């Protein structure tokens, strides 16, 4: 288990593999690990006046070389970078800022112009902070980079006081089911999770990861901010995970070997990327949503690399389980990562259930969060004696593979029976046989039965009629089959910036 902080690991990596590619992006920016360290040291000088009296610092920048360097610079200064979720509402972003006590936010000018946000804090443009250094700044950076030991450098920059169990970053939950909660992840949490994933898939220097998940996403931060620092692979960033026309050439140019994505994003790559653009691909890991078999088959056929499903939670840094290239079970999310323990308990009694029975998943391990920022009561609700209550209904088989049945919150209690939204969605989408999700299920209160299912969909009339005919014969209980009057057509399904279905958005549509 690592006893280093992310900033210590970062300096060690930058000096060990100094001439290797650290990061690149779709703007043409490209830096080696040595160049990345130099630029970070330069940024710390300009950030000092802005962040001098702050512990938690705000960042509102999409996946890019500049955004990654900004996070690294914050860590070197001993600050806690908080990447704000720019897909939240104005009120949601303001809540995150206020919870952290942030007074200054470094932003991307282009992003701010597009979002038209008004932040209740001082705003500083990354573009201004990155302008050409003066002669004195060059001398300072040169002396620090060349003449100082790693420990000495951190003392001068401010990052030497941190310990492995201190907060490294705060990731706000997506707010798909309520107000965003600040998940406090330690240096140990993140470094261990990178090492746990690498233990399954051997992340190496020659790997190139496609960095399209936002830094405010726990997988985006762990894999594309902490990942290169810990495992010394390179990252190629693009700010729009669905823009295949840019991602294709970027992937080909940098020889992308690893993609981490959601099934929604894979659908765009399947349609918009050419096989030669992913000719170096060796690993595709997907999460956040169920991976449909037909999508995995189609992706493998086109790119000669089968997507593997994994499972995680922001509160677990986020990786919990992962399928391996040689050890996998289609439909499962793989086996628990190294050093993780799991138990499946009855949602009602809390009693641990035998292997193979379906119940509520609790996990324990070095990657489990410190807690929720400023919310001791909410922390105590989900974290007891190191065991984190995931809120997911699962089955753990005798071979150690984990099978997700759905979120506890994604079940409707109808006539005393638990009805899983995810299973109904999966059945409907398989019957539709489209390359993207067009059916999503939620529940609304019902006076007679407790709850009533509502299916939000984007199918045209012809396709809907065809699906409904097949659905009546589907091998699922009749209680799980919504009637035609419970189907509601919308122009598009609501999604969060992380690629997940927006559950609150679904609920609001259904209730309206």
Entry summary:
With 512 residues, the chain is of the alpha/beta class.
Task: Explain what this protein looks like in three dimensions.
The chain is of the alpha/beta class and 512 residues long. Among the domains are: 6-239, 3-Layer(aba) Sandwich (Rossmann fold); 415-511, GMP Synthetase, Chain A, domain 3 (2-Layer Sandwich), CATH 3.30.300. Helix content is 36%, strand content 24%. The protein contains 17 helices and 26 strands. The strands form six sheets. A nine-stranded mixed β-sheet has the order 2-1-10-9-11-12-13-14-15, with helices on both faces. Strands 16, 17, 19, 20 and 21 form a five-stranded antiparallel β-sheet that branches. Helix 1 (6-16) packs antiparallel against helix 2 (33-51), helix 1 (6-16) crosses helix 10 and helix 15 crosses helix 16. The chain is globular.
Helix content range: 25-40%
Radius of gyration: 23 Å
- What is the CATH domain class of one domain? Alpha Beta
Widest β-sheet, arrangement of strands:
2-1-10-9-11-12-13-14-15
Write the layout of secondary structure elements.
Layout: H1 6-16, E1 21-25, E2 30-32, H2 33-51, E3 56-60, H3 65-76, E4 80-83, H4 90-100, E5 104-107, H5 109-115, E6 122-125, H6 126-129, H7 135-147, H8 150-157, E7 167-172, E8 182-186, H9 187-201, E9 208-211, H10 218-231, E10 234-237, H11 244-254, E11 258-261, H12 263-272, E12 283-286, H13 293-303, E13 308-312, E14 319-322, E15 335-336, E16 341-345, E17 358-364, E18 371-372, H14 376-382, E19 383-384, E20 387-396, E21 402-407, E22 411-414, E23 417-420, H15 421-432, E24 439-446, E25 450-457, H16 461-471, E26 487-489, H17 503-511
Parallel strand pairs: 1-10, 3-4, 3-5, 5-6, 9-10, 9-11, 11-12, 12-13, 25-26
Antiparallel strand pairs: 1-2, 7-8, 8-18, 13-14, 14-15, 16-17, 17-20, 19-20, 20-21, 22-23, 24-25
Helix pairs in contact: 1-2, 1-10, 2-3, 2-7, 9-10, 11-12, 12-13, 15-16
């Amino acid at each position: 288990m690592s006893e280093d902080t992310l900033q210590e690991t970062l300096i060690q990596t930058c000096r060990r593999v100094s001439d290797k590619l650290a990061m690149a992006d779709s703007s043409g920016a490209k830096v080696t690990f040595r160049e990345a360290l130099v630029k970070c040291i330069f940024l710390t000088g300009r950030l000092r006046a802005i962040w001098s009296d702050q512990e938690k610092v705000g960042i509102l920048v999409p996946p890019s070389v500049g955004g990654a360097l900004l996070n690294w610079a914050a860590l070197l200064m001993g600050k806690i970078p908080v990447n704000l979720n720019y897909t939240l509402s104005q009120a949601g972003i303001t809540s995150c800022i206020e919870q952290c006590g942030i007074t200054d936010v470094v932003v991307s000018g282009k992003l701010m112009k597009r979002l038209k946000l008004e932040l209740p804090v001082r705003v500083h443009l990354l573009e201004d902070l990155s302008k050409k250094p003066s002669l004195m700044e060059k001398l300072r950076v040169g002396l620090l980079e060349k003449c100082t030991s790693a420990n000495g450098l951190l003392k001068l920059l401010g990052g030497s006081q941190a310990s492995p169990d201190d907060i490294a970053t705060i990731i706000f939950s997506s707010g798909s089911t309520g107000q965003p909660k600040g998940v406090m992840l330690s240096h140990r949490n993140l470094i261990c999770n990178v090492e746990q994933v690498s233990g399954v898939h051997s992340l190496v220097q020659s790997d190139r990861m496609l960095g399209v998940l936002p830094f405010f996403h726990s997988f985006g931060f762990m894999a594309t901010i902490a990942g290169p620092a810990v495992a010394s692979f390179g990252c190629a960033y693009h700010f729009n995970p669905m823009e295949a026309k840019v991602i294709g050439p970027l992937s080909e140019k940098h020889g992308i070997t690893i993609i981490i994505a959601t099934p929604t994003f894979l659908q765009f790559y399947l349609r918009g990327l050419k096989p030669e653009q992913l000719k170096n691909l060796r690993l595709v890991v997907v999460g956040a949503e169920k991976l449909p078999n037909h999508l995995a088959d189609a992706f493998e056929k086109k790119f000669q690399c089968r997507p593997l499903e994994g499972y995680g939670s922001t509160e677990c840094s986020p990786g919990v389980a992962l399928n391996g290239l040689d050890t996998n079970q289609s439909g499962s999310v793989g086996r628990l990562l190294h050093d993780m323990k799991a138990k499946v308990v009855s949602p009602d009694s809390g009693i641990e259930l035998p292997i193979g029975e379906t119940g509520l998943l609790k996990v324990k391990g070095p990657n489990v969060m410190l807690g929720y920022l400023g919310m001791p009561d909410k922390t105590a609700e989900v974290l007891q004696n190191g065991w984190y209550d995931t809120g997911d209904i699962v089955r753990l088989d005798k071979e150690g593979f984990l099978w997700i049945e759905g979120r506890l919150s994604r079940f409707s209690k109808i006539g005393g029976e638990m009805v899983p939204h995810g299973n109904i969605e999966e059945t409907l989408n398989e019957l539709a046989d489209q390359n993207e999700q067009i059916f999503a299920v939620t529940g609304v209160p019902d006076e007679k039965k407790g709850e009533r299912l509502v299916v939000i969909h984007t199918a045209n009339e012809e396709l809907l009629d065809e699906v409904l005919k097949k659905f009546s014969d589907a091998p699922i209980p009749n209680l799980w089959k919504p009637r035609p009057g419970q189907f509601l057509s919308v122009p598009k399904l609501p999604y969060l910036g992380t690629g997940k279905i927006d559950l609150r958005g679904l609920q609001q549509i259904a209730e309206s």
